[in-house]
């Protein structure tokens, strides 16, 4: 008996040491993030970051930040997260939405943001990777600037090449369920990349990726459905009158994405005038209308205003417009998407605050710690890059969604219901247009014993979900509710 126990122990020890050898040989130690300026606590899980070269000749490099699950990294899903733009860094998601930390603007000038643990980090239940894509965005770069001329399909091919290399570098994650997620313009990145992954697997590309499904938040999908979304949204939310809604619907024959005729144009202009001064990323939020931040005194706002859309995080003053999403209340059209600098020239309502992220990610010690190139080599980190010339060349996403869901991949299409940039009315309409059988009829879903929004479940594992009171960047506004729906979706349970 003693002999048996002893031998079992020896065997277990051997097994452990061989596993240990595999791990040390795989996850590259040089990518490990060991400390972060501004954070003095202990990391709840391992973090890795660095570059993956996808074209040696061009010196084309994509940068990632990978957070291991705080639960069971060897079993939990691996989820890729992509912010939109096109041209916005996925570190937006890391800093402002569902990353492992919350960032606090320092009281003193020139000091680093304070970094605390985020109790609602998506790394509580998944391994999650933030990828700066395409090259030219965030910390990703190429030595050949011609790579900054890109588009939907090229971006998908490059991100796929990145994934293949990354899973080779981290083979211990190859068997975990793999999901792709993103928001806003990533409504295009996610299904196009998913489609590349599925085709790659079909064609026997190695390593095979254990792809299971995807999530899209306030994502663009289709010119017609997204373009028709604003007027019914504005009406339903009480932003325009019944009469204007009726007149506009009549004048435009119910179709607002492709304005025909003077009468229709006049009516839509009236709608735009009514909603123009709202914060388009969350109609409940205050919006900064001046040119200098010091003139904007948060305390001068009624407290009821500040309480709306309240989360445990402090509501940021929305200052700079470098937003997280094309379109600016306009559907995505085929062809070249305007650059951020071009958009800024016409924008009168700047509502996005990127100060914490900009200060932290441009600090030389932070860049060193997260294995990003120095500013002297690749320039400053910007929330959204103006370097790209980007073509929307993938058309409507509806056929992609249809193919993916009919092939058995799970899809969660979620919307912060107070976002006016990509309103839920568009996502609701296109998901319904697929014509799948309703298997879980429209009902409230619950988080923390409260109604957190509404959901409608379709056949073929397609779920549409709203998050009540959330804006464009859902987890930024509703972190707790977001971790709830995210965990339930990944676990395959009812939301
Ligand atoms: C902080 O910096 C800004 C701009 O550089 C300056 O206007 C402001 O007076 C400074 N505040 C303090 C407290 O030093
Ligand atoms: C950059 O790439 C383009 C396209 O592959 C190529 O024609 C060009 O020669 C390259 N430029 C440099 C400086 O290598
Ligand atoms: C709606 O149309 C009617 C008839 O053309 C017009 O009299 C009315 O002023 C319009 N109302 C609004 C709010 O545009
Ligand atoms: C209005 O739209 C309907 C279908 O939605 C179409 O059949 C009709 O021809 C359109 N009318 C005009 C005047 O464009
Ligand atoms: C969808 O599937 C059809 C049939 O397999 C195929 O012809 C088409 O190219 C696919 N479209 C996309 C966008 O994946
Ligand atoms: C995991 C899951 O929900 N699978 C379902 C996907 O959709 C098909 C067809 O509607 C169902 O049969 C599966 O049970």
From TrEMBL:
PROSITE patterns: CARBOXYPEPT_SER_HIS, CARBOXYPEPT_SER_SER. Residues 1-26 form the signal peptide. Its main location: secreted. Pfam families: Peptidase_S10. It is an enzyme of class 3 (hydrolase). Its EC number is 3.4.16.-. It is found in: Secreted. Keywords: Carboxypeptidase, Glycoprotein, Hydrolase, Protease, Secreted, Signal. Belongs to the peptidase S10 family. This is Carboxypeptidase. It comes from Camelina sativa.
């Amino acid at each position: 008996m003693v002999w048996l126990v002893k031998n079992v122990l020896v065997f277990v020890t051997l097994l452990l040491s061989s596993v240990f050898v595999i791990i040390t040989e795989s996850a590259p130690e040089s990518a490990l993030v060991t400390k972060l300026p501004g954070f003095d606590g202990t990391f709840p899980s391992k973090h890795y970051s660095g570059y993956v070269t996808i074209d040696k000749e061009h010196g084309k490099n994509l940068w990632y930040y990978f957070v291991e699950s705080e639960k069971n990294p060897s079993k939990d899903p691996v989820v890729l997260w992509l912010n939109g733009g096109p041209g916005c860094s996925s570190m937006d998601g890391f800093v402002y939405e569902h990353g492992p930390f919350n960032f606090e603007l320092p009281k003193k000038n020139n000091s680093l943001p304070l970094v605390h643990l985020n109790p609602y980090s998506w790394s509580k239940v998944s391994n999650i990777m933030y990828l700066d894509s395409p090259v030219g965005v965030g910390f990703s770069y190429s030595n050949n600037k011609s790579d900054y001329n890109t588009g939907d399909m090229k971006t998908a091919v490059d991100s796929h090449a990145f994934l293949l290399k990354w899973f080779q570098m981290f083979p211990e994650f190859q068997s975990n369920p793999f999901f792709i997620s993103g928001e806003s313009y990533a409504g295009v990145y996610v299904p196009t990349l998913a489609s590349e992954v599925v085709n790659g697997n079909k064609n026997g590309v190695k390593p095979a990726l254990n792809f299971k499904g995807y999530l899209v938040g306030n994502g663009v999908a289709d010119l017609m459905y997204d373009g028709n979304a604003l007027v019914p949204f504005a009406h339903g939310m009480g932003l325009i009158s019944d009469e204007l809604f009726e007149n506009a619907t009549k004048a435009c024959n119910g179709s607002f994405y492709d304005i025909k005729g003077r009468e229709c144009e006049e009516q839509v202009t009236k709608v735009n005038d009514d909603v123009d001064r709202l914060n388009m990323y969350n109609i409940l939020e205050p919006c900064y209308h001046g040119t200098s931040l010091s003139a904007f005194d948060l305390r001068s706002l009624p407290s009821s205003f500040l309480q709306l859309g309240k989360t445990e995080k402090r509501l940021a003053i929305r200052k700079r417009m470098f937003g997280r999403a094309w379109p600016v209340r306009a559907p995505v059209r085929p062809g070249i998407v305007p650059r951020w600098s071009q958009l800024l020239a016409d924008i009168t309502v700047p509502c996005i605050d990127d100060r914490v992220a900009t200060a932290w990610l441009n600090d030389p010690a932070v860049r060193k710690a997260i294995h990003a190139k120095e500013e002297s080599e690749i320039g400053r980190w910007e929330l959204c890059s103006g370097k790209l010339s980007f073509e929307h060349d993938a058309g409507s996403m509806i056929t992609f969604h249809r193919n993916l869901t009919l092939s058995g991949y799970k899809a969660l299409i979620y919307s912060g219901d107070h976002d006016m940039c990509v309103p839920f009315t568009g996502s609701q309409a296109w998901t319904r247009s697929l014509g799948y059988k309703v298997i879980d009829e429209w009902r409230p879903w619950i988080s923390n014993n409260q109604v957190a929004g509404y959901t409608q479940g379709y056949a073929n594992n397609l779920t549409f979900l709203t998050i009540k009171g959330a804006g464009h960047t859902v987890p930024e506004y509703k972190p707790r509710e977001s971790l709830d729906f995210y965990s339930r979706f990944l676990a395959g349970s009812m939301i």
